[in-house]
Every structure is written in C-alpha cells, then in structure tokens.
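dumping this here before i forget
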Amino acid sequence: MSTTLQKINKASKKNRNLAFISLGIIGGLTISGELFCRYILGLGDPPLSITHPTIEYMFKPNQNLKRFDNHILINQYGMRSENLLPQKESEEYRIMVFGDSVVNGGNLTDHEKLATTIIQNQLKKLKQNLVFVGNISAGSWGPGNWLAYGKEYGFFDADMIVLVISSHDYADNPSFQPLNPNTHPQKKPISAMTEAMTRYLPKYLSKIGFNKANVGNEEHVKFEKPTPKAAIQQGLNDLKEFLLMAQNSGVDVFVVQYWAREEVKTGKFEPGHEEINKLVQNLNIPIFQTGSLFQQAYKNGEDPFRDGIHPNDKGQELLAKIILDIAASY
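structure:
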C-alpha cells in the first residue's frame, strides 16, 4: 500500500512540475510577445481620438507618444504640433496649415518629418525669431471639419493660413457616426499584443486570403457609386464658408491643391479638382498645385507617395517646399 501511495505522490509531483514548467513557458512567451509587439513593432500606444459635437472628431489633446518608432506629438488644441499660447508673442510668426491625413502624416510619419515641422524649422533659421506652424488635421477630415474647427478655436492670431485640399475632399462631409476603433481608437488597448491580435492580425490574414468573405469568390469587383449632388453641394458650401471666415479674419489665405498619385502620373484629375479650383479662384484666393513638383520627383527616380494618396517622407518634404515658397513670396 505504501508503495502505491509513493507512486501516486511521485506522479502528482511530476504533474505539478510539468504544470509549473508549462505556466513558466506560457508566461515567458506572453512577456516576450508583449515586449516584441511594444518595442519592436511599436504597438500598444496609439494616438487617441475624441468625438466633438460640431467638429465630429479630433485628436485627443496633450499626447506625446511613440508609434512604430515614430514620435507623435499632439498639443492642447488637438494639432499635431508643439504646444502654443492662445495669443502669439511679439515678433512671433504663425502659420496654420489645415488638412486631412495628407497633412497629418499618420502613424508612419515622425514629428520631425512632417511638412509643418520642416516649415517651422526652416523659418526659424531664416527669421531668427519665434515661429509656430500649426498642423490642424485628422484622417478623413473635410470642409465641414475645418469649418467647425475654425468656429470652435479660431485661427490663433495666424499671419498666414494654408489649406491643403485633395480632389475628393469636395464631398467629404462629416457623418457623426460612431468612430471605428481600428482607424480612430478612443482608448488604449489592454496590451500591445492584444492590439496586434485584434487590430492588425485580421488585416494581415485578409490580405493573404484568410477571410471568410473571400471563400468561394475568386474575384471582387468594386463599383464606384456616383457622389450625390447634395453631398457635393454641402462640401463646397462648407469650403466656401471656411475660406470666407479665414479671409474675414484679416489673415493671408492660400490653398494648395494636393494631387493624388494617379493624378500626378496621368495628369488627369479626379472628380472635385475643377470644382474646388473654380470656387477658390472666385474668392480671389491664391491657389497652388503640387503636381509639377511631385512629377519632377518621379523623373528623378523618387516616389513621393506611401500609397495612392499619402505622401511619404519625400512627399512631406515637397509639400513643405511648396508652402515655404508661398511664405517667401507673400
């Protein structure tokens, strides 16, 4: 009987040891996975957005973080810029640049590589005094968002306002729908590994074909729906009101029409380009095009785009050059 008990105790001890070893391995893998996702992949600390009753949404103020090894800085007014005083100091020069994800740069653009940061640093060297360049932007913002932001916060005693606008923005209107946590997270994930599993792994699996929606379908055909006339009219009305509000503030106002990759490559404009151009010219606002400078980059063997529309670091440099040339000429 004692021999049997000894065998049972020995087996029980062995099982406990195996359990401890298994837990140790799982714990080690979990910690290693978390460290890898956080410090190698750069996950776990995304820039957060907040909803707003009139602006629709904007970046949560006062954020300073690392994302994909890029420095993301959001000031007290939700700009992707340094903090600023509500009223400028004597001899300070201010430019406010409005835009969407093109100007914002997203998680893949470091603070120092933003066109607005480049402009600020260059002007500081030239003017030898205080310079602030505000990056007033967020992904998928359009005329209604810019208008509402201007009404909410004003133009911060700017000397110059620049709107960077793409063709599709003419009908990009606020919808006030709940924010998608995958594109505009409002709270931090539980862990970096959780974010990798829930936010990015499904995208990766979808790209390589592991998507239930793709099973049995060899090809997906997307049909472009025509933009409703009411949406176009709303966007153009909001754009006109925003530009008039900027003009009436006594500030020098400029518009930069930003060309998407296909527009640069083909010279053919997407819907919205001509409508925006006509509206801006009717307001007697100077308007500038990114096309020729981006086309020259291609001729020099440099691709200034990250995807179909967003500029990479080279594209941000070119956008900065255009705005710096405007500042130097007026």
